Amino acid sequence: AACPTIISRAQWGARIPRCQSGVAAPMKYAIIHHTAWQCCTTLESCIQQMKHIQNYHMDNKGWCDIGYSFLIGEDGNVYEGRGWNTEGAHTSNYNTTGYGISFMGNFTNVAPNAAALAAVKNLLCCAVSKGYLRPDYVLKGHRDLGTTECPGSSFYNLIKKWPRFHA
Ligand SMILES: *[C@@H]1O[C@H](CO)[C@@H](O)[C@H](O)[C@H]1NC(C)=O
Ligand SMILES: *[C@@H]1O[C@H](CO)[C@@H](O)[C@H](O)[C@H]1NC(C)=O
Ligand SMILES: [Zn+2]
C-alpha cells in the first residue's frame, strides 16, 4: 500500500519533546479520536492547530509532547504527532499498545470530510504494510475505552462500519 504524505514535525514546527519512550511495533490497536476543537481545511490553518494542540498538551496537560500519534486535517493531510515509534498520551491504558489518531475538529454533529477519511484509510493500510500495525489490528473509538464522547457521535457512527472496528 502506498503511504500517504505525512507532514513531519519539522514541517509543522513542533516543539522538542520534554521526554519520550519507545513502543514495540507492531501495535494491536488503532484508536480514533477527535480534538473537539477547530477544524482546518488548509495546510496553514492545520499547522496552526497542530501548534495550539501541542502547546495545550505540554503546557496545560503537562505531557511530554503532543499526545496523539498522528493527526488528520480536513485539508487531507496526515500530521506527525509522536509518530510510529514513540509512546503517546492519548488513551489511558492503551498508550503502549495502540496508536492514537486524532481528527482535527469536533465531529459530534458532522463526520470528517472525504479528504480526511481517505487520509486515515491510507495511513492504516500503510501502517500494516510497514509492520507498525498488526494485520489483524483492532480499530476502536476512544469512547470504547474510556468515559468520553470522543471521537464525536457522528464520526463514531461512521467508524463502527469500518472493517477492522470492534467495540
Ligand atoms: C462539540 O460540539 C458539540 C455539538 O455542537 C458541543 O455540544 C460540544 O460542547 C463541543 N465540544 C467542545 C469540546 O467544544
Ligand atoms: C496515557 O494517555 C492518557 C491520556 O489519555 C494520559 O492521561 C495517561 O497519563 C497516559 N499514560 C497511561 C499509563 O495511561
Ligand atoms: Zn479522544
The outline comes out as globular
Instruction: Give the distinct bound molecules.
Output: 2-acetamido-2-deoxy-beta-D-glucopyranose, zinc ion
Q: Helical region count?
A: 4
**How many strands?**
6
> Alpha-carbon distance between the termini?
26 Å
Mean pLDDT: 97
Main pleated sheet: 6 strands, mixed
Uncertain residue segments: none
Strand content: 15-25%
The proportion of residues forming helix, as a percent range, comes to 25-40%
In N-to-C order, the SSE pattern is EHEHEEEHEH
Domain module count: 1
Quaternary structure of the protein: single chain
CATH topology: Lysozyme-like
Structural class: alpha/beta
Could you say what the CATH architecture is?
3-Layer(aba) Sandwich
Give the CATH superfamily: Peptidoglycan recognition protein-like
Strand neighbour order, sheet with most strands: 1-4-3-5-2-6
Protein name: Peptidoglycan recognition protein 1
Disulfide bonds: 3-126, 40-46
GO biological process, one term: innate immune response
Family: Belongs to the N-acetylmuramoyl-L-alanine amidase 2 family.
